[in-house]
What we know:
Blueprint: H1 13-30, H2 34-41, H3 45-57, E1 65-69, H4 75-80, E2 86-91, H5 94-103, E3 109-113, E4 126-132, H6 141-151, E5 152-163, H7 171-190, H8 193-205, H9 209-219, E6 222-229, E7 234-240
Parallel strand pairs: 1-2, 1-4, 2-3, 4-5
Antiparallel strand pairs: 5-7, 6-7
Helix pairs in contact: 2-7, 7-8
This protein binds S-adenosylmethionine.
Residues 20, 23-24, 27, 38, 69-72, 75-76, 91-93, 96, 115-117, 132-134, 137-138 line the site of S-adenosylmethionine.
Organism: Roseospira visakhapatnamensis
EC number: 2.1.1.163, 2.1.1.201
Binding site for S-adenosyl-L-methionine: 73, 91
Amino acid sequence: MSDSVSQDCGLDEATRRADGRLIRAMFDAVAPRYDSMNDIMSFGVHRLWKRRLRRMAGPPRGRGLALDLAGGTGDIADLMADKDWAVAVCDPSTGMIDAGRKANAGPRLRWVAGAGEALPFADRTFDVVTLGFGLRNMTDRRGALTEVLRVLVPGGTLLCLEFSTPWRLIRPAYEGYSRRMIPRLGAAVAGQPDAYRYLVDSIGAFPDQKTLAGWLRDAGFATVRYRNLFMGIAAIHSGTRPA
Length: 243
Ligand SMILES: C[S@@+](CC[C@H](N)C(=O)[O-])C[C@H]1O[C@@H](n2cnc3c(N)ncnc32)[C@H](O)[C@@H]1O
C-alpha cells in the first residue's frame, strides 16, 4: 500500500482511486475475522466506545434516519437501530457488508455499497451520521466530511469515533503494544499481518484531536467538540450542520 494513503491531501485522482481499491480489497480479506479481531485487539473495549457513541446519538429529534458510514459489519448500526431509528449502513467493501448481513440482520438496517467521498444519498437525508474507525481509511478525508455535511439535515449531527493521539504518559506502552502485538495477532487470528501493520501505520499518521476538530470546522460543521476515550487512544468528535 502506498504511503500516500496516510496523507490527507496532495494525492492525484488516479493514486486516490488505486489506494481506495487496495483498502477495499484489504477489508474484503479481513471481513470474516474482523469482529473477532476487534474484540481480541482491544480486549473488548471497542464495544464500550461504540455504546458511548450510541448514547451520544440519543433519541431522534427528526424522522429518525441515521447513516452508519464506513459501517463495516454494522455493529454500530445494530446498536443504533431500534423502534425510533432506521439505519442505512454504507461501506465500499462487499466482504464487510456480506459478513455484516450475517451478523447483524436487524429489520431496521439497510445495506448500501458506497464510499464516503461520493455518498449515494440525496442532500439533507439523515438526522445523524455515525462514522466509526472509518475516516482514517478514506483517501479524501476532507472531501468525505463535506459529503457527510451534505447528506445531514440542518441541525443533524456527525459522530466520528476514531483512534487519536494518546496522552504522552501512555504513548510508549501503547506504541509498543501496537507495533509489536497487533501485526502478530493479525497474522495469528486473521491470517493478514499486512492489513494489521497498515492499521498501526494509519493510526500513527492520523491527525490529532485538535487538528481533526479543525477539519470539521473547515468543512462547515458547527458546535464542534471532542471527547477523549481511554486517555486519548480514541476520541469521539461531534459537529452539527448549521440550521
Ligand atoms: C476499521 S473498519 C470500521 C468498521 C466499523 N465502523 C467499526 O467501527 O468496526 C473501516 C471500514 O471503512 C471502510 N472504508 C474503507 N474505505 C472507505 C471509504 N472510502 N468510504 C467509506 N468507507 C470506507 C472499510 O471497508 C471498513 O469497513
